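Hi Y.,

Following your request, here is the sequence exactly as I used it, all 413 residues.
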Amino acid sequence: MSRHYAPKTFIRQVRGALLNRCLRRHGIDLDVNIEIIKPAVVETIFQRLMTLPPSQLTHIELDFATITEMASSEGAQALLRQSSHAGLDFSTLFAHARNDYERACWAFLEHRELFELASCFHTMDRIGAGRWHRRRVGADLTPVIDPDAIQLLQSLMRAHYAKEGRGRRCQIDYYQRLDPVRHCFFAYPEDHMRTDLGYDENDTMQEYPRKAAFELIFVYRPNEGQLEVMAPGGKEQVEGLLACFCAAILGIPELPAQRLPRIFDLDQLKQPGITFPTDPQDGIDLVQLREVKLMLPKDQGWRRRIQFTADSRAYEPATIHRVLIETVKLSQVPLDDVTVGSAKFCIIFTPVDTARSMRLVFTVSTPDMCDLKDGYHANIARKYLRRWGLVVDEMPEKVPARPGSALRSYLSS
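Below is the corresponding structure, written out as tokens. Let me know if you'd prefer a different format.
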């Protein structure tokens, strides 16, 4: 979980040479002892910062807030993974750092580009599953990432947002993530003009116009053939953006028809011998089935559902099969007519160094709902859902989709 920036908290957590380096980046050399942060020293530094010119203070606090966003165990793991992909080893230094603030601060100062890349992925991993829009577009496609393709996507997005009076400028950054491979495009279209009220250096209230940007993220997963986008707007708005991406990056002139990205078959959990095997290299200590919701056939106008929740104090709970046959009168309701509507899992990962065990809790519901995000541990869980036989690749009926008015007008011009 990311932290909220608070200046005094930052000063307490980042001390000594690191805090000095953060301040010296902006020409500030405080005449106080910051090797040992005591309450009086924290207050002295804070009051000194408050006397700086607003423009200088803004840049300092921007650095502090950026570092704070990565000052968590998840942020540290994102930095470690990205450093590993870059052929660097942060593990020894991170193990001796006093806290997550200092780990993030050191990476920010020493490896700024790597820090910014890890920060983008960390932001992407925190986005809830319900905010992504997904479309199956085809597996193993090769995205075109040269400047011409990026410029074409920018042009299509500008045309897409032109009808709303925004998007005149659009910056797009491309990154590739590994394990599994994901092609990520972070887009920043220009938003509507805004005017903020504020005070200048003479303490006079002024109006400050600005053209802010809002963020969109496209992710193409070649192994699954799935395209995802995190963007504001309704179905038509999102489909237009997906169509722009397909045309510019994937070489698909029209948005493919809607297909569900996957279907979960949770009825496997009814089997008496169901197990959840894992590989040692993934560092999993335990897989727990925490909750199961069963759906029975309708009876006299009533929908019947049963929910089982595992007792956390039980060392080895009975299988759902055993509980099912002891609860439901199978003579009246055949087992085949009882379906598993959803299941909640908990995967406990082996602690790293002195850290606590990482617990990943997530829910899977039929036919295609899963609240896993896009982090490192979440992708391990996705792999095992398929291995455990809970994912089946079926393609339901196609739902027609339009390429979007902005794309049609652009391509016809």
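The radius of gyration is 26 Å.

Thanks again,
Q.
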